[in-house]
């Protein structure tokens, strides 16, 4: 019994494997379906995208009057196969009975013996019943579409959703199929040719057709002029970038770059470029600006970092084209848009250029100086209280280090209480309160204020001034030391006066 159980288990396993294999094969077969329009000599390949079939490829073909209509399923595949004659075909896939997909036939089973007369019949009814294709197309079916795939052959005046492709023509009696991907194929090293493309000057306002006189031939040497496509790019002056435009306008002076391209029937490509320069009848000779130099500032108000540059006048006044373009010779320092609005970016020097667009090459420049404003000022004081008759040296630090003007001016709000000189030395005059301001002398006008109290040590017990912290600047000095903390009030005043005298200029 155990033996029969094992036999049944093995049989069940093989049955499951067979079912799964058939399911995988059915799924593969369902991936594609092919339709052959016999009347239009077109093959359309459809691929299932998960919900429906979508046309993905169209091939030109040569069926024959004997090609049957109906629905069939692909059979076996043969790399080379003997055909009528005898002749030979590459990449053969059976459609039904003796009807195959295959390449245009060869006199021998050699790739350089294909019948060029028959190749040039692609797109017409020419076979004995098989469906002839280019090597590239027959190989694609051979490589990608599994046996069992549905093939429908029908007649219709409409080629199919992707239309009817064009086959390239060949010259001579026999040779290689131009589409054969074999590296030995000499056509793989050939490309279309474009003739008549030549850069030149065009008169302002001249009638000009970018395609006139331009011809092309395809890879096999046949006329391909109708396949020429052009892309046109324009720039007013050499410093500009080319921009794509719809047409070459001879009433607009400047430089046009025209790129001619050809893609032939087998996908081979060729490009050629011509530069056409248009000069107006009356060129600009001089551009006068509203200013030739300007200083801007970063780190402060936006209004200090921007202004509008203008072409004040253009001569002669009857110049054919009076337009100008704006550009910066150093965009990291300052930028300018095509309205002439200038924006400072960082400290430095740069020239802005205002150029005529008429191809004359005339331009004027404006020299821009960008200065860095102070963005902060830090003040350090020994304290915020002083005795009458004493002095205290202020210390200031202007940020950032790259600021152009680090000059600081000092003022006292009440000079009867205390005065301050241009170096920041405060002198206490009489008891009271005052405000000592340190102000940057650039256009940013950043400032910091110390609130100061002046006392008379002889009138009452002196109160030592604590460390002053002003606008985020920490005080690094303390007027009273540990050694003086135990002295009598009179001795303390004397010690503070002596200590202050020693600190006036950092001694």
How many DSSP helices?
4
Shape: elongated
Q: Oligomeric state of the chains? A: single chain
Beta-strand proportion: 35-45%
Give me the secondary-structure category.
mainly beta
Strand ordering within the main sheet: 3-2-1-10-4
- The whole-number mean of residue pLDDT values reads 87
Radius of gyration, whole Å: 45 Å
Major β-sheet profile:
5 strands, mixed
Extract low-pLDDT stretches: 463-467, 471-507
What is the number of E strands? Answer: 37
Percent of residues in helices: 10-25%
What is the end-to-end distance? Answer: 114 Å
Written account of the structure:
This protein is elongated. Strand 24 and strand 25 (341-344) form a beta hairpin. Mean pLDDT is 87; it is low at 463-467 and 471-507. The longest helix has 28 residues, at 2-29. The strands form eleven sheets. The protein has a five-stranded mixed β-sheet, with no helix packed on it. It is mainly beta. 31% of the residues are buried. 11% of the residues lie in helices and 39% in strands.
């Amino acid at each position: 019994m155990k033996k029969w159980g094992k036999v049944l288990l093995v049989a069940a396993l093989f049955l499951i494997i067979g079912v799964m294999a058939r399911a995988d094969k059915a799924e593969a077969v369902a991936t594609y379906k092919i339709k052959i329009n016999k009347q239009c000599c077109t093959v359309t390949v459809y691929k299932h995208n998960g919900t429906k079939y979508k046309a993905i490829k169209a091939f030109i073909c040569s069926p024959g009057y004997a090609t049957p209509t109906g629905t069939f399923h692909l059979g076996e595949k043969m790399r080379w196969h003997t055909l009528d004659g005898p002749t030979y075909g590459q990449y053969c896939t059976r459609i039904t009975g003796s009807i195959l997909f295959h390449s245009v036939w060869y006199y021998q089973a050699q790739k350089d013996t294909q019948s060029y007369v028959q190749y040039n019949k692609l797109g017409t009814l020419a076979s004995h019943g098989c469906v002839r294709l280019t090597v590239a197309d027959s190989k694609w079916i051979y490589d990608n579409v599994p046996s069992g795939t549905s093939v429908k052959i029908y007649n219709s005046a409409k080629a199919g959703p992707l239309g009817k492709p064009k086959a390239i023509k060949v010259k001579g009696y026999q040779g290689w199929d131009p589409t054969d991907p074999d590296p030995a194929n000499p056509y793989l090293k050939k490309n279309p040719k474009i003739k008549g493309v030549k850069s030149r000057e065009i008169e302002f306002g001249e009638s000009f057709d970018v395609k006139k006189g331009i011809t092309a031939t395809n890879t096999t040497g046949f006329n391909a002029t109708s396949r020429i496509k052009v892309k046109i790019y324009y720039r007013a002056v050499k410093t500009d970038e080319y921009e794509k435009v719809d047409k070459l306008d001879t009433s607009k002076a400047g430089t046009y770059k025209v790129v001619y391209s050809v893609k032939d029937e087998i996908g081979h490509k060729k490009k050629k470029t011509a530069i056409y320069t248009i000069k107006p009848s009356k060129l600009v000779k001089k551009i006068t600006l509203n200013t030739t130099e300007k200083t801007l500032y970063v780190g402060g108000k936006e209004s200090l970092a921007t202004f509008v540059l203008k072409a004040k006048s253009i001569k002669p006044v009857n110049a054919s084209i009076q337009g100008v373009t704006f550009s910066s010779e150093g965009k990291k320092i300052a930028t300018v848009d095509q309205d002439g609005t200038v924006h400072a970016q960082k400290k430095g020097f740069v020239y802005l250029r205002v150029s005529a667009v008429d191809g004359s090459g005339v331009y004027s420049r404006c020299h821009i100086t960008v200065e860095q404003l102070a963005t902060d000022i830090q003040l350090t004081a020994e304290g915020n209280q002083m005795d009458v008759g004493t002095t205290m040296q202020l210390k200031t630090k202007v940020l950032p280090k790259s600021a152009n003007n680090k000059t600081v001016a000092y003022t006292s709000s009440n000079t009867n209480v205390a005065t301050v000189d241009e170096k920041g030395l405060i002198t206490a005059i009489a008891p009271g309160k005052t405000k000592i301001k340190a102000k940057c002398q650039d256009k940013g006008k950043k400032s910091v204020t110390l609130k100061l109290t002046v006392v008379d040590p002889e009138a009452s017990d002196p109160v030592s001034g604590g460390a002053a912290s002003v606008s985020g600047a920490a005080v690094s000095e303390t007027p009273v030391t540990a050694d003086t903390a135990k002295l009598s009030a009179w001795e303390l005043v004397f010690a503070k006066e002596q200590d202050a005298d020693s600190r006036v200029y950092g001694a």
